[in-house]
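Researcher: Quick sanity check before group meeting.
Model: Go ahead. Protein one:
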Amino acid sequence: MEWLLLARLLWSLLFLCADLTEGVTITSTEQTMVTKALGEKVTLLCQYTLAAGDEGLLDIEWVVLEPKKEQPVIMYSQNTVYDKYHMAGRVQFVNQNPADGDASIDILNLQPADSGTYQCKVKKAPDMQTHRVQLSVYEKPQKTKCYVEGSQEIGTDVTLKCKSQGGTPLISYHWGKMGKEGLPDRSSLNSDTGDLLIKNASRASSGTYKCVASNRVGADECSLVLNVTPPVNRAGTIAGAVIGTLLGLCLLAFIIFCCCKKQREKKYEKEVHHDIREDVPPPKSRGSTARSYIGSNRSSLGSMSPSNMDGYAKTQYNKVPSEDFERTSPQNPNFQPPKYGHASRMGDITVV
């Protein structure tokens, strides 16, 4: 019995020594991957215990592991917190005193650039332990729009479209029909593109449809109303289009005719105005002036008395232009001007 008791005592001492030499231990190792939405808050866990034999200074360090270096996030050393790094103002320790065994941190207002591998390092000489957490920051789907592509007529294939304007891939789309009927039997869904194809649509296909776009951090939705109608009378539509086109051409031809007619009228008015100016008589020539001059003198002879007839004949004919006079005078060089005798009455001329 004494040997049995001694063996148990030795085993207890061995386990006690193992506990004393274990040193720093991080206990929150279950958190290895975290996915959060843009703008949210995340808590990265790093809880630990210290061995009784560790008497050195306690240092806590959070870093982001990058391909070529470690980028500091927040630190604790010698009872002081250092947080003036690239996340300044958005990161803090959960416990105001990280030395109490909780080195977990909160990151506020997450951004896509915050995605990465974070490492918590707890060191107290002579021991040190690390723990890594993978953080992924996603953007929720947003501004999702629903619309119909193709004709909404009976017997045609109709495609319902659903697309989000924002959101981190991969985004999955799901369509549903409001009410108890569910999606039509002849419909097929592509969850990657958001297309719902309804083949050979009928009146039963009409109704309100809702689309939900979702990814790992959130969802967004939209809806539309599908109204399947009988085919349109295409012959009447074509006839109406032809008639409308002909009327339009007739109206255009009438406008062109009116414009041309107006142009011709303006051109005619200009030509008439020009012809009137050409009809104005030209200035009298020198010969016509001489003839009119002689005629006026002959008409004035009847009012003259016989006493001054001789002097008038001599002086007045000398004023007639020589050119005209030579053309009207006789060719006989022996021609003598006639002599005038006395008249019995005023105004009568008697040739002697």
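Researcher: Fine. The other one?
Model: Protein two, sequence then structure:
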Amino acid sequence: ADGRSTGCEDVLPEQVAGCSDLNTTAFLYRVIRAEDPDLVVFTGDNIFGADSTDAAKSMDAAIAPAITMNLRWAAVLGNHDQEGTLSREGVMRHLVGMKNTLSRFNPEGVEIDGFGNYNLEVGGVEGTLLANKSVLNLYFLDSGDRSTVWWIPGYGWIKASQQAWFKQTSLSLQKNYRNEEPRQKEPAPALAYFHIPLPEFSSFTASDFTGVKQESISSPSINSGFFTTMVEAGDVKAAFIGHDHINDFCGKLTGIQLCYAGGLGYHAYGKAGWSRRARVVSVQLEKTVSGEWQGVKSIKTWKRLDDQHLTTIDSEVLWNRGSNGKTLTHA
């Protein structure tokens, strides 16, 4: 919100004095310095709009560590970003005008709901056969704020127009990867980023996820079918969201890892004594015997805690090439 003058929520009594928005900024710097990432993704509720005097200034402060450290970054909107001095459209327009951003307002020439629906292509290693192909695809979607249909209560959802754009984009990327030289047997893996959890995040019990669930899943009251759309597309291996601050689990459903990160911000609800945290995703490439870099081999993740040691927890493999669990039998 407003920096030093904005106090912390849900911290231990001994942490209250002097705790402010600046603690959020300091934590982000710590994680960036420790991990040296190639890309930072902000998964919505990047600012607490209602408590911010100037939404543009607050957004500049929220993203500042990535820009100061000269990193590329991307963002999606949550349900609180537009509650201040900028509309939802205004917030996204501000984000796409900022330094080092890879965020986009919306795909050109497409009628689409929301603001901040776009994709990024991660190219293969320069000088290799895959240099001109996207070996990893990233999809970013606006999951809305509140329902815009008056008789449906609760949060927003990913609409049909957004799903049509996603399907078309995924299909086109997969065609290029498989059909253009050098042809690849399987589609390049993809990751999806949006803010509000899909109803399918409620599919897990504590025995089949890594991490914790400490609050209910605040998904929309209707299921718009985006999970099924991702399953049918076949390239998305993991989806990452925000929204529920004290959930930080990853669970696998029908071949897709559904992952929370846990809350990073101090001026937002949390749980006293439970460290603020950030999720790190690491993508490894295959290397041939002759030393040539190829496509993605595996996708791993872990979380960093804002404690004394910046502790790493819950390291796990989200996806390995050839681990889709598909078996063919011939009669």
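Researcher: One line on it for the slide.
Model: Confidence is low (pLDDT under 50) at residues 325-331.
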